[in-house]
Design brief:
By secondary structure, the chain is α/β, with parallel strands linked by helices. Helices cover 38% and strands 16% of the residues.
Length: 268
């Protein structure tokens, strides 16, 4: 599902400090732990619709690397079909009949990044990662909006790498989209942390509560669902800077993810 909130927001302030390289066949933004420290783990960001080039996603990758002492990868999983942040000012003003015309504009993104096309690309990256530099390090994934689906799928532990290990050790997601509820929640077996607002137009509150109930029944010590009052879809990566509460919602999700990875990387 796509909505106006999937393609609106603000560019956040800051300068990405990492670098680009090709990792396991995909162009990838790479952020390393500070001061040359060895990584405690590897975090792979599966981004929202604005993709791997988006400044906000890269700044978030830098924060994860710094605050978890992890190697962070932000790969190009969309094969050149990410949406442009140049749309942000326009999307925030669209109302009425123009909404449907705008959604039609998103059709190429929706077509070329649909699950049947993107999942093999995403899974291949994780297979290669687990059998190479991730063979002896814990791996976590952080998925946002479009990428949130993969946080759930990878947490289902439905595939093993060639070395017999799970593709990831833990997952985090904020405002996920394209979930099949209740199936995607029922299939989760690896530790999963979810941050979502109670006014999300993609994952409605009854669905959020259903997912929360399913995951908590599996074990409150293993999974968590943080329902943030007033947080809209996209808050974790594209919060409007003129909205102090929205910015705070984004910081809350960032802290939640950092704490989650620190917890699970320490246990390994």
């Amino acid at each position: 599902m796509a909505c106006i909130d999937c393609f609106s927001g603000d560019l956040h302030q800051g300068t990405p400090e990492g670098r680009e390289d090709v990792i396991h066949g995909l162009p990838t933004y790479i952020s390393k732990p500070p001061d040359g420290q060895p990584p405690r783990g590897i975090i792979v960001i599966v981004p929202d619709a604005v993709g791997w080039k988006f400044q906000n996603n890269r700044i978030l990758a830098d924060s994860y690397a710094k605050n978890t002492n992890s190697l962070v990868y932000l790969p190009e999983f969309m094969d050149g079909h990410a949406m442009s942040p140049d749309l942000f000012p326009t999307m925030g003003k669209i109302t009425g009949d123009a909404v449907m015309r705008a959604i039609a504009y998103f059709a190429p993104f929706l077509f070329f990044t649909r699950l049947s096309i993107a999942q093999p690309r995403v899974y291949k990256f994780f297979h290669d990662l687990r059998t190479n530099e991730g063979a002896s390090l814990p791996i976590g994934t952080a998925g946002f909006c479009w990428g949130g689906k993969f946080s759930f799928l990878l947490a289902s532990d439905s595939e093993k790498a060639a070395n017999g290990k799970s593709l990831v050790d833990c997952s985090f997601t904020a405002h996920p989209s394209n979930l099949v509820i209740p199936n995607d929640a029922q299939n989760v077996s690896l530790p999963l942390s979810v941050a979502v607002g109670d006014v999300d137009v993609v994952m409605r509150l009854p669905q959020v509560q259903e997912v929360k109930g399913i995951l908590e029944e599996k074990g409150k010590d293993k999974h968590e669902v943080n329902i943030i009052p007033g947080a809209k879809h996209g808050f974790a990566v594209r919060a409007p800077l003129n909205n102090e509460k929205a910015v705070q919602h984004g910081k809350e999700a960032e802290t939640q993810a950092i704490n989650w990875f620190n917890k699970h990387f320490t246990q390994k």
